[in-house]
C-alpha cells in the first residue's frame, strides 16, 4: 500500500493504512523491548498461519490457478533467482558464507494475504486481487520447494566460514576418543 501510494498509483484511506501497518509496528516495538514478549508472540505466529491460509485457500478458484500455473511457476523461480543471488552476495559481503542469504530467498506464506488486504483498502484493486493472490500462492509453493534444494547446494559448495575447518566425521571422533582419554 505504501509503495502504490508513494508511486501515485493508488490512494488508500489513512484508516486502512493505519490498520495494516500499526499492528506490525506495535509488534516490532514489543518484541524489541521485551525478550519474554518476543518469545511468547513468536510462538503464536506459526499457529495463526493455517487460519488465514485456510481462508485464502477456500477462496481460490482452482481453474484460475491452473490457467496461471506457468506464470506462477515463473514468479516463484524468479523470486528464488533474483533474491537468492542478491542475498547471497549481501551475505558474503557481510562476512557470511552466502547460505543464509539463499535460505532467505523465499516468499513467506503470509504474503498471499497482501493482495486481499490491498483490495480491501482500495476496491479499485478488487479485480486484480484474485489473480495476484493466485500468483503469490504459487510463488509460496514454488519457493518452499526450491529454496531448501538451492540452500543445500550452496551449503555444500560455500558452507564453511573463512578460518573454519570442516567438522570431523563421527568415525574419527570415536577413534580419537580413547587417545584423548589416556592423555
Give your account of this protein's structure.
Helix 2 packs antiparallel against helix 3, helix 5 crosses helix 8 and helix 7 packs antiparallel against helix 8. The chain is mainly alpha-helical and 183 residues long. The protein folds into 2 domains: 13-59; 61-159, no CATH class. The chain has 9 helices and no strands. Helices cover 77% and strands 0% of the residues. The longest helix has 33 residues, at 126-158. The termini are far apart. Residues 168-183 have low confidence and may be disordered.
Overall 3D form: globular
Biggest sheet layout: none
Structural class: mainly alpha
Report the uncertain regions: 168-183
Oligomeric state of this protein: single chain
Ends apart, CA distance between termini = 66 Å
String of helices and strands: HHHHHHHHH
What labels would you give this structure?
183 residues; mainly alpha; 2 domains; 9 helices; globular
Concise overview:
This protein has 9 helices and no strands. The protein is mainly α and 183 residues long.
List the helices and strands and how they pair.
Layout: H1 2-6, H2 14-33, H3 35-59, H4 62-67, H5 69-93, H6 99-103, H7 114-121, H8 126-158, H9 170-182
Helix pairs in contact: 2-3, 5-8, 7-8
